[in-house]
Amino acid sequence: MDETEHTSQADDSGDSGEETDGPHVTDDGVDDPPPDPSNRAVEANGSDADKAPTSDHDAGVVDGQASVADQGVDATQQSEAGVGTDGSSTAAEGPTADEAATPDPDVDADTDVNVGSGGRDRSSPDVDLDGVVLDDDDSQGLFDDLLSGEPIFENKEVLRPSYTPHELPHRNDQINRMATILVSALRGETPSNILIYGKTGTGKTASAKFVSQELESTSQKYDVPCEVEYINCEVTDTQYRVLAQLANTFIEKNQQVIADRLDDHRALRSDAADDSDALAATEFATLDELDARIEQLEADAAEMEEVPMTGWPTDRVYSTFFEAVDYHERVVVIMLDEIDKLVEKSGDDTLYNLSRMNSELTRSRISIMGISNDLKFTDFLDPRVKSSLGEEEIVFPPYDANQLRDILQHRADIAFKHEALTDDVIPLCAAFAAQEHGDARRALDLLRTAGELAERSQAEIVAEKHVRQAQDKIELDRVVEVVRTLPTQSKIVLFAVILLEKNGVHNINTGEVFNIYKRLCEEIDADVLTQRRVTDLISELDMLGIVNAVVVSKGRYGRTKEMGLSVPVEETEAVLLSDSRLGDIENAQPFVQARFDN
Ligand code: ADP
Ligand code: MG
Fold first, then answer.
1. pLDDT value at position 591?
2. Counting ligands in written order, which one lies closest to the CA of residue 206?
3. 482 lines ligand 1 (CB under 6 A)
């Protein structure tokens, strides 16, 4: 796309030097704000309420700070249903789509990884445990075996999503395009708004953060007032929260600016009290002028009121943000990561309001950089928002297997001990992840999990089988997470499918599912949806890869869907029954029996 002309508002009265304190994570423990008074709410998605969450493990992660979501995932992985780490995988050839989709049936969700029964005697450690003193009298050896293996990892953190790589191979083009557009900010001009698209794990967040760090450090170097605000809209997912977070960030920065100026002015004040020439080279002609300025600054500081995380009318939050950002000259780039989640949840009001601000701001300018995983998300936008937000568009294509190898190799060099991987480990991780729409996050997850599994089974080296086990484990974790977070109605539908499948029904059709579904609903006092809605829910389960449904024609009787489960029955059922409502279903067998009796 062409370089766009930017409206100039260059005015270099340097008010820079204030600290930007990097990405912010909002506390998401706060209550939802009251309903948005604005009536522009756009229904972003017809089936909003039933919309299932994504399976993106690490979507809530803000670089450098493991978010709640990330910790949640980690916790599951540690207390995780142990995958048979002792060679249960038998697959020998390269990954196939089938393998990728079907977790190993041998995987046992209930047993723990058995670190002790590997058959190797580790009682006399041959490694130097620098500084670790094992007191034989007191300890019962719980950790001895675990500690005694040669560590495989040099620095495991490097494989986590929270790590920001210093190099991003295969993203030069995208990074350069961003820089070319954003450089205007360093000239005091307003950069075009940018929309970045790409599937998960294509390096959007990592690239955007890299560019924003460069932008901010360059702005400090040249003393130009340019700031980047990063917001993860998966966490900060309502207009109120986005505006409140922005307002509070700028209020905090303004307070700092004011405090610095007050320091200077008060110092000048005391100099001037002794020596009337002290004001000579300053903007103040008289002591009274200086005093007035000090008073003004003190009043400004007192006036700036932080926005509470809930409770104010949205227009008050908006105007507070407006005042705060416009307090002095600056160009602000607002990065809205996972912007599709914001629009899906709260409509496009936020974007509409933000994109109109420049026409009213007097000192500052803002530019929006939206990052979306959903390529079609602009379809839901008001046309005005769409054209303003999409002034520049940058696409992040999926990585192919070779590119993923490069990415993994860069990280593995730092993350693992020398020669801790067999030659086929990285290519296999890359191949699996390339099937998964070229997802670098998945590739890194696989590599890390494979290393962890190897470590837990006390292998000396990570081998192909660990990668296959890791693939199974991650797939199972994904299924568990997706099923766990399904809306209740979808869970009931899925439970109906499971009951049928467990009773040996093949090619289950919609009518059969609906009958069982109805009985289950009655049993637990849930609303009964129409068969049409249930058919829609089945389609959603299909899209999530939980069931596999095909439409079959029944001649003049019309068409129906036939389906089967694409996930392991036992584990899935266990997850469903852990839901307090479904857990109430004591004995489901009669429902299915009734179906056969009909
Ligand atoms: P997205 O935001 O597109 O979902 P991320 O930027 O979060 O993807 O990338 C996912 C993971 O892959 C992160 O750990 C990131 O550091 C890593 N990653 C992505 N692209 C690259 C790359 N080109 N080089 C190195 N690491 C990368
Ligand atoms: Mg991202």
1. 58
2. 1
3. no
